[in-house]
Design brief:
Largest sheet: none
Distance between the termini: 67 Å
Number of domains: 1
Shape: globular
Oligomer: single chain
Helix content: 55-70%
Structural class: mainly alpha
Radius of gyration: 20 Å
């Protein structure tokens, strides 16, 4: 009995391609301001690392701002989920209104 293994190779390549596609779409989503409320803080911390040759001590304040941003919006998202509001994460325009009502970012 002779088994044709070409189908298995095709499936493996298909899975690898799907993983790559999923990874790239995840990366794109993280760069979308409507999805990622902390995009500015994320980019600032990344840029700080580039400028300071990956010296994390020099960028601690940027990391803290990013962490506080994530905590704040995670809390908002969880509250909206409990209240049955969709989307759970407010879109960029709505987030601007929320921050304006708080008179600026609390982080």
């Amino acid at each position: 009995m002779h088994l044709d293994k070409s189908c298995c190779r095709l499936k493996k390549k298909s899975r690898e391609k799907q993983y790559h596609t999923d990874f790239m779409s995840q990366k794109r989503r993280l760069q979308d301001y409507d999805i990622n409320p902390c995009l500015v803080e994320s980019n600032a911390s990344r840029k700080c690392l580039e400028v300071n040759q990956s010296d994390k001590d020099m960028c601690a304040i940027y990391f803290l701002k990013y962490k506080n941003c994530r905590k704040f919006w995670h809390g908002i998202m969880m509250q909206r989920r409990q209240d049955g509001i969709k989307p759970h994460m407010p879109i960029a325009e709505e987030r601007k209104r929320i921050l304006a009502s708080l008179e600026g970012a609390p982080y």
